[in-house]
Design a protein that fits this description.
6 helices, transmembrane ascorbate ferrireductase activity (chains A, B), 229 residues, homodimer
């Protein structure tokens, strides 16, 4: 199902939307929500770390890790290293981000793991880690045989896309859940903060779509590392 | 990115999960939520039509329409007809389902179109209709030239998958939104209804994943109509 379109323009869109998302999620949590804090009597500031790290980590850096094979004019081995290091950073930020959600809940007396967002979120981080470990062992160190790599690659790409799309979906659930809580506490439904959060979520979906499009499109000549293992 | 796996087993999983989803969404809305009604003084009964028709329409019948090319041992022209008719039924049920959400809002004095679920939902139904119309005109009547069909097919498949995944994501947003409203009104967070709704949402995600897997896998010999236009 490879598309007869060059991937590079799609990767440019990924970069631009990624920068926009970083700005939007920081404006939301610092300007509208009061800022970020690891320790605070205002427990909401602890929570605010959660959307910032999940979006910058799993979604944006994770998305850049996926597109790096198509976006960068470098040798295969260098791109592979960038791919796995960016994904490792994404996972690390994701785990810290998830820890902050639990920390906020525990210090505020809020129940854990009752919502669909939390269920899918735990699923995503577990699958993301499994995917990373399988990729590391098979394609990097110690590395599988040529036939194992060839047999594994389409499944690695497909499973990676599925986990990534699930991460994007879980992020949109998080935006909706947090905004619904805020609106139930009196936030105006058509106000500037609500519009900002909804627009951030829509741009997150677009970002994810362009990441997938870049994977399915053609790399530069002799540069398509999804077929050259 | 076609997978070296037969599609048929994936389509069986789609059927089984689809039947499970029909049962779950009906149990939720009839047993737990009090039933369905087009006109009622209990406006919640009007709303209840919405999740039932959206899930059975866009998600389940839409998913069966997508997998029909891989699931049915019939001639290409027959499968094409089944594909477009099932999608037309999915769209019709989707439009009635969306109408019921507006009807419930309007008769209950609730604001329209402020949530991410509603924004993405309107986007999905519009894109779904565009996709159907383009497919009808290009592949059915009057039908494009051979080169137009060949050039269009990968984009038709890709755009179809993107719209379908967006529909599944929007459905999960709807489950989370409705459950959050109910929990804010006193529903137990770890109670049987909450578990039922979350499980229905998780199975919806699995259903969507198996629909996509069936599209990307191999049809029976000489039967893969995603390459034979």
């Amino acid at each position: 199902m490879a598309l007869a379109a060059p991937a590079l323009p799609f990767t440019f869109v990924v970069h631009v939307l990624g920068i926009a998302l970083v700005v939007l999620v920081l404006v939301w949590n610092i300007h509208f929500r009061g800022g970020l804090a690891w320790e605070s009597t205002n427990k909401s500031l602890i929570f605010n770390i959660h959307p910032v790290l999940m979006l910058i980590g799993l979604i944006i850096i994770g998305g850049e890790a996926i597109t790096s094979y198509k976006a960068l004019p470098l040798k295969k081995e260098v791109k592979k290293l960038i791919h796995l290091v960016l994904h490792a950073i994404a996972i690390a930020l994701g785990i810290i981000g998830i820890y902050c959600a639990f920390k906020f809940h525990n210090e505020s007396g809020i129940a854990n793991l009752y919502s669909l967002h939390s269920w899918l979120g735990i699923g995503v981080i577990v699958l993301y880690c499994i995917q990373w470990l399988y990729g590391f062992v098979t394609f990097f160190f110690p590395g599988g045989s040529q036939s194992v790599r060839q047999g594994s690659l389409p499944w690695h790409v497909l499973f990676g896309i599925i986990v990534y799309v699930l991460a994007v979906g879980t992020a949109t659930l998080g935006f909706l859940e947090k905004l619904t809580f805020l609106e139930n506490s009196g936030l105006t439904k058509y106000g500037s903060e609500a519009m900002l959060v909804n627009c951030t979520a829509v741009i997150t979906v677009l970002f994810g779509a362009f990441v997938v499009l870049s994977v399915l499109s053609q790399g530069s000549a002799g540069d398509d590392d999804y077929t050259a293992i």
